[in-house]
Amino acid sequence: MAPQIRRIRMRHTLFAALLASAALLLVPPTASAQWRSEPTGFHAAAFLNGSAITYEDDDEAESGGGVGFVLGWGLGNLVTLYLEGVAADVEFLSGGGTYTLTHADLGARFNFRSMAKRWRPYAKAAVTGLYAETDILGNDIFSISGAGVTVGGGIAYFISRKFAVDAGLEFTGGSFSEAELAGLKNDIDVSATSTRFNLGMSFWNGHR
């Protein structure tokens, strides 16, 4: 009888283990698993922009609004390499018109917190191309161009694993080194600092 009792107990134990495993499979995922973020793979973003710039001889900033985009690649959960372009319609301090101010960034974005979190703060660093142009009497284009360095940060709220509402602030310091009017170019040296606020949507295609 003893061997039979032991076999029955072993069967009951095995049956109980199978039931426990099945129950675990049926338990729904936790909230953190449902809302995990995955800023990896191909990255794209579009946003509204507010830009302000101060030139070396001015005490006040010239400002305006515009739009921007980002294309990049998430190397992993923590680092995304990106190219960002922003164009804003900026008003002259003296009034009497506007000009187009463009920033072009090539940089890296560093994401904080784990993939189980929806709120993901981040920091950014980039080298930046600067360009501004306006019409002169509606005929010729006057432009200035240069370069600088950008640092910034922001926060992304992932509404799903791949899509996020993104708000960021960026600071650029640099100088304009060339002016052009009607095809004629001249060297200049005008330092400038700018601030950009971006609000939009970000996407990563992820790896899964």
Overview of this protein structure:
With 208 residues, the chain is mainly beta. The chain is built from two helices and eight strands, in the order H-H-E-E-E-E-E-E-E-E. The protein has a single domain (37-204), classed as Porin, CATH 2.40.160. The protein has helices spanning 2-26, 31-34, and strands spanning 41-55, 62-74, 79-91, 98-111, 119-136, 140-158, 163-181, 184-204. It has an eight-stranded antiparallel barrel. The termini are far apart. Residues 1-32 have low confidence and may be disordered.
List key phrases describing it.
single chain, 208 residues, mainly beta, Porin, 8-stranded antiparallel barrel, 8 strands, elongated, disordered N terminus
Strand content: over 45%
Count of domain modules: 1
Under CATH at level 1, the class stands as Mainly Beta
Spatial extent as radius of gyration? 27 Å
The CATH architecture classification is Beta Barrel
Q: What helical percentage do the residues reach?
A: 10-25%
Largest sheet: 8 strands, antiparallel, barrel
Helix/strand-derived category reads mainly beta
Mean pLDDT: 85
- Count the DSSP helices: 2
Form type: elongated
Low-confidence stretches: 1-32
Write down how many β-strands occur, each being a DSSP E stretch of 2 or more residues. Answer: 8
Side by side, the strands of the main sheet go 1-2-3-4-5-6-7-8
Order of helices and strands: HHEEEEEEEE
Cα end-to-end separation: 54 Å
CATH topology: Porin
